[in-house]
Specification:
The protein has 5 helices and 2 strands; from the N terminus they run αββαααα. The chain has 141 residues and is mostly helical. β1 and β2 form a beta hairpin. The N terminus is likely disordered. It binds zinc ion.
Amino acid sequence: MFSPPAVLCAHGGMTKWRVLMAMMRTCITCGTRYEYCGNCKGQAKGPTWKNIYDKESCKIIFNTLASFKNGTLTAEQTHDIVLRCKDVDLTKLTPQLQENWNEVMDSLKPKKIEKTESVRSYTARRRRLKNNEENLIVNED
Ligand SMILES: [Zn+2]
């Protein structure tokens, strides 16, 4: 199939440089710079998500986190779907998405133990144990 080079795109009157700039996009999920021009004949049939995402997985992640935020998906479901998008580097998510993802991870963490032993009572317990050990040693004599 014939597909014309991207620079043949009809951005009327634009210089080649500006045409290239018009085709450079930044993915709103992972911040990747990619080239896509919805006006180019060669790419005109590209999926519409190509206008804002570099990969389909990025679209899935973006929508999944949005659904988590509005309560449509649970943290478990969100976690499941996002981890299936293996071609996206989750450390590259935009700050907003990173925040949402952290929220998912946080709500999946096991709940904190209700009664956390205070440092003081822990130290006291250790001391009692130590004394007992010493007593045992003494008793052995
Ligand atoms: Zn992306």
